[in-house]
Design a protein that fits this description.
Elements: E1 11-13, H1 19-29, E2 31-41, H2 43-48, H3 50-58, E3 62-69, H4 73-80, H5 86-95, H6 104-118, E4 122-129, E5 139-144, E6 149-154, H7 160-165, E7 169-174, H8 178-195, E8 202-206, H9 209-216, H10 226-232, H11 256-267, E9 271-276, H12 282-297, E10 300-306, H13 309-321, E11 327-329, H14 336-349, E12 354-360, H15 361-364, H16 367-374, E13 380-385, H17 393-396, E14 405-410, H18 419-429, E15 432-436, H19 438-443, E16 449-458, H20 461-476, E17 478-481, E18 484-487, H21 489-503, H22 507-516, E19 525-528, E20 533-535, E21 542-544, H23 545-557, E22 561-564, H24 570-582, E23 588-591, E24 606-609, H25 616-626, E25 635-644, H26 654-668, H27 673-686, H28 696-700
Parallel strand pairs: 2-3, 3-4, 9-14, 9-15, 10-12, 10-13, 11-12, 13-14, 16-25, 19-23, 19-24, 22-23, 24-25
Antiparallel strand pairs: 1-7, 2-5, 4-8, 5-6, 6-7, 17-18, 20-21
Length: 710
Amino acid sequence: MLLSNLGLKRSYRSSNDNMVKDFYNPVLSVAIKYKRAVGYFTISSLINASQGLSNLIENGGRVEIIASPKLSEDDINTINLGYKMKSDVVLDAMIREFNNIESENVKEKLNYIATLIADERLDIKIALMEDYGAYHEKFGIVEDAMNNKIMFTGSMNETSNGQYTNFESFVVFKSWDEEGNEYVKEYEESFNDLWENRTNRLNVQPFPEALRNKLLEYKKTTYIKESELEKNNFLDNELEDKPEFPQVPDWFKPREYQLEAIDNWANNNFNGLLSMATGTGKTLTGLYGVTKLWERLHKMVIVIVCPYQHLVEQWVEDVKQFNLSPIICYSKYTNWREKLYRKVKLFNYGTINNFTIVTTNSTFSMPEMQEFLTNIDGNILLVVDEAHNAGTSSMKRCLDDKFKYRLGLSATPRRFRDEENTEFIFDYFGGEVFSFDLERAINEGFLTKYYYYPHIVRLTDMEQEEYNQLSLKIAQNIKEINGKVILNDIAKNLLIKRSRLVAGASNKLVALRKIMGQYTNKNYILVYCGATKTTDEYDGSEERQIRKVCQILWNEFGIKNTKFTSEETPDERQEIIDMFSDGKDLQAIVAIKCLDEGVNIPAIQHAFILASSTDPKEFIQRRGRVLRLYKDKEYAYIHDFITIPNNDEYVGNSLVETELKRVYEFSSLSENIIQNEEIIDELLDTFKIEKEKITDARDKYNIGGLSDEE
């Protein structure tokens, strides 16, 4: 929004206009510069325009004000009689406004002003007459991001009375009007002369340091827009919080393994990682653990951290079932800072004995969130969902001793090719105290049994040539230091490019077409694509793989489908899930990555994996999505497209080895393991690869198989 879009009138009068609502707030909300020369100035006038100023903060704007303080009759007599220096009387008069401020609402608004001052975006200078006259000029200049400017001048002072009580009027000149632009230029030069103290009969002084310090006393770590304060009735509604505490809902009966998991966690001083396969109820297990710790402490703060916003929303629904009303903290909920500020105060004062935060990794890592958490005087339980993400640099900085109690949840707590940060995660959370792997979940009936079908796809000659060139360049940009492989940025980018080449291998579309003819009348189909382009061998066209797959399913097979990506809104995604699960109007979902963590669509029965990374965490999660229990779902069916070189001469090829690690893992728990072993053995023999090289993913990355005890 720009000044020129506000529909500003030529003049404003108190008989028809609300000076703050109709002019000040909308104008300042789009401003990046606000210059004001005014006869009488009071802090209360800035408070009245605080909504506009808070938006100006968001815009990165700057405010410059030249004003003469409003002096009382006693002030003037004090000056005339020589009892005090004029500058001292001015300072006393301006500080006087801060006496007896009790309203939390006013204090919050002063926070806006203090934030501007601290960030050096608000500067005020005091205009004093060299004689005993009064500086009574009144004009302002506002500029937006596109250099549109307005100048307004009239009777209104920068006081609360001037803005609300008195009958005032002023006129507005606009730079986008030819005549108005001349006035804008003239007054801008006048303001600059004032600011640099080049105006006859006036002495323009810097803002008194004592008053600046007084204002800064009101600064907080965060600020809240006035509109949000009013919307949430936070400061004006001091009703007591309803009593709440962590409590197991009547409908939840913990399974034996969930009891075992929390017992192990409790016996480890309520610290530890729970490694639980996708679909085994780790969220409810975690919340059950919250109730057990509450029974021990009876006073604590619960902080639940999730990698994505949709996971936050899912946790919130479950948290509410456990008798808690969480503060939801991420960008969508703009009032979370004020809510959290109040809860921390109430908790520290002993007014409440618990509260719960559910937030994203990103918001959790913000300095202001960490400051809130540091100010909590009491025990904090930190619950981290998808705890393998806790090994990132931004998260690691925040994981310190203020969290006495720690619970990490993940299907795959180990980080792929990152032993250093995996070790950090295990050390911080106190080790893995419970494991419930996929094999056990399937055998005990908590996940669906499945059939696995690997489809061998060869690179084309052109793709193979490009793959070889990329591999050569990657090798040239890799170093090994003390047994550790070091990749420079060039190598990393080349690896991504090579991965996308494999993911988008054009023969995958050929193979897909051969299979999909059997699925024209089936529902509950999921197709995983890569974030890449692909070439269609049928017509030679090149476009995004996901778009091409959608076209093939509908145009060639009449399969009703839709894409499911980060481009869809949360509401659109939920509508897609509902339609898909209904099994009538939508047969297939075509996705890239946004189904990898946390999205629950148990109706999926037939999965086609066109693209997969080498990270076991990704393919274990993808398999888990397909194996969730659902009505009338006896088995799940996974079709995996395996990319190999275009001929058998590439002995010991790393591409085949990488692909076979996934095939081996998926096959090991499938119902048709014998048939798949024949395919695996044939590829191992053809490309002269030792079987031990494809079995290490299971143990190294914690994705199934026998535990250490077994």
